[in-house]
Amino acid sequence: MDKKGSSSNINSSDLATDKTHLILVNAVVEKDGRILVSQRSFEETHQPGSWTIPGGKVEKTPGNVWNIIEETLKKEVMEETGVEIKDDAQLLTNNTFIRSTGQHVVALVFLCHWKSGEGKPLEDTIDVKWITEDKLKKMEFAPNVSIYIQKGFDALRK
Question: So what's the pLDDT on residue 35?
């Protein structure tokens, strides 16, 4: 090991390659029995203009960072919608998919609860709504998103 505590003989099989997935975290944000949804900007490369839930990629960090999933959830929800979420995110589901750009993705989807904020379109969004379960089937969502939201409504009934 060198003076910084890292190995100078890095095994290439430990590095990110085309065999690895991008990590995406999504928030099914609940407030008074309704779920927060947002419409993607038409400038987005993946599913432009479609309805979705707030979330984003887990960014590379400068080193060891604790609670990166929770911090990414909070950051993305705030940046995209102006809503602050509580510190009680619960994993709802996870899956893999291939983005329209060809990237392989692991999606981690969490049930989150509203803490403050009005909900408005900000970064990468053009509209924001709080929807009830009956409205879910009347809207057109990006692939998998309606399943994520339904799992959120199901969890709220438990």
Answer: 98
pTM value? 0.85
What is the distance between the terminal CA atoms of the chain, rounded to a whole angstrom? 51
- Kindly report, residue by residue over 31-85, the tens digit of the pLDDT: 999 999 999 989 887 788 899 999 999 998 889 999 999 999 999 999 999 999 9
DSSP string across the chain: --TTS--SS--GGGS--TTS-EEEEEEEEEETTEEEEEEEPTT-SSSTT-EE-SEEEPPP-SS--TTHHHHHHHHHHHHHHS-EE-S--EEEEEEEEE-TTS-EEEEEEEEEEEEE------TTEEEEEEE-HHHHTTS-BSTTHHHHHHHHHHHHH-
**Contact criterion met (CB below 8 Å) for 146 and 51:** no
Q: What is the third-level CATH fold of 20-157?
A: Nucleoside Triphosphate Pyrophosphohydrolase (3.90.79)
